[in-house]
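Hi R.,

Here's the input for the FE2/S2 (inorganic) cluster complex you asked about:
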Amino acid sequence: MVADHAIAVFNLGTTLLAIDAACTHVKGPLERGRIEGTIVTCPWHGSQFDLSTGEVKRGPATQPVKTYPVRLENGKLAIELP
Ligand code: FES
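And here is the predicted structure with FE2/S2 (inorganic) cluster in place:
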């Protein structure tokens, strides 16, 4: 949780990516989703989102998820909120 935002952070090895944790379909837990490349699959109904852009790659979701700049600073995650 960051300032009342539930945010999921994914470590892709050399890259950190952060998105809203709630799927835009009916709020499934994207932090529990399966990752393939930069695509996360919602565990509830299978919507897929690009972690870099938030774009929907497969429905039933029709709206993108928000993405947030994230970086590691002195061993702590720093996430920029709008
Ligand atoms: S809640 Fe994510 S696909 Fe339905």
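One thing worth noting: Residues 23, 25-26, 28, 42, 44-47, 60-61 surround FE2/S2 (inorganic) cluster (CB under 6 Å).

Cheers,
M.
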